[in-house]
Amino acid sequence: IARSGADLVAQLVLENEDQYDDIKGQTTEQVNFDEGYFTAEIEEIPSGVRIVSTGVVGSRKRTVSLILEGVSTAPLIDHAVYAKGNIEITEGVMISGDIATSSTSTPAVNMTGGAAILPESGSGHAGTVFVPTSADERLYDRYVQIEKGNEISGGIKKKDVPDYNNINFPDPPSGVEFGSSENVYLQELYDPSGGPVYFNFTSDKQHYKSFTARGKQQPLIIDLENKKRTLVIDELTLENDMSIILENVGDEGHLHLFVRKMTCSGGGPYINYEVQAQPGQTSPPEPRTDILTLYYSGSEPFGGINQHSGWSFSFAGNLVVKDAPIFLTSSAKIKGNIFTNSTSVTFGGDSTVEAGLVYAPNAHLIVGNGGATRSIVCNTFHGSGGPSGGKPLDIKFEPIDMDTIPDGIFEGALGSSSSLARSYWER
Q1: Cα(379)–Cα(356) distance, integer angstroms
Q2: How far apart are CA 326 and CA 21, in angstroms?
Q3: With contact defined as beta carbons under 8 Å apart, do 228 and 252 qualify?
Q4: Pick from 210, 310, 311, 291: which is nearest to 245 by CA?
Q5: What is the torsion angle, in degrees rounded to the nearest 10, for the CA atoms of residue 415, residue 416, residue 417 and residue 418?
Q6: Mean residue pLDDT across the chain
Q7: What is the distance between the alpha carbons of residues 247 and 253, in angstroms, rounded to a whole number?
Q8: What angle do CA 67, 71, 73 make, to 5 degrees?
Q9: Tens-place pLDDT, residues 310-365
Q10: Beta strands 205-214 and 156-158: pairing type?
């Protein structure tokens, strides 16, 4: 009876992980069987959950414990660059950390023009190129073709890397789906003095069919009131160097911004990326990447028309793009993680992409001048842009802080990177 009770409660927890915060620490009511009954307590422990079940038959009593442990559902990110297919590095690119490919074609890695794979001591990476375990060591020179003057500090080694799956792109919350008729046109809130325009939420979740902000030197201030807020916009238009600033963030504030169509013109907007020093400051504040997540589900390219024509915009936060092409070019400035199911991602044109993680498992990813990331996951990779081509391309691996990953991007209801599974009987 005690074991049956633990099994029943464990199944209840596993099937309702989205309600875990409400049921942890609770004790069940008495559950009766023909022979006796059980009660069970749900205890939170560092590794997961302990189900303590006590079965009673007459005057006899037995207590057992079943452990549910957290199981990572986020992929292990342990490379400066990982590609399912081929990797091409040229024109003085410097990568600090290991790179890996699952490609079995030759050459899987091609290095030309003074490129280098260097050690990254902070992570223990030796600057190694990893190829699949099926690769024949006698043919390493075919798998990895390296011109004279290029460098691989850690040599070539074998390693099989698990598959990286698609992201889980979320829908807007219930009640604020795309398609309602509400509109807001922020030029109507114009301040003749040239001061900021304020947007205040009337509820935690709001939807607009169209949302237009025009504000040459007149920032739009969004007041979060130290709360998690959701803004769903069918068509977002930003014009004339529009600057969007999140205010009163506090410890809990976060803006989840869902956009289906986005247009930028008349100068690049600044989204959660202040460019002017505030009174009493000598320089603009460092952008906070933990207070904004932008979900873009449109079919038109995000960031511009193509790799030669971009919005020249600045953004700080998590950027989540469903499957549209991404062109972060034309002096765009991006800080934060990027997640997408897109097949085409391009950074270049003197853009500055200071990303933590770029997770694009389906994409041919092109990184040019000015790129700077901690880790890249892609389908195929092309990196170029040394001193002769403008700003150098710098990829320096650092461990990814999984707390910065948006909830639900990788499966797991207890957070962005973990779920629960049955582990063992403790007693």
Answers
A1: 18
A2: 37
A3: yes
A4: 291
A5: 20
A6: 85
A7: 9
A8: 160
A9: 788 889 999 999 999 999 887 788 899 999 999 999 987 666 777 789 999 999 99
A10: unpaired
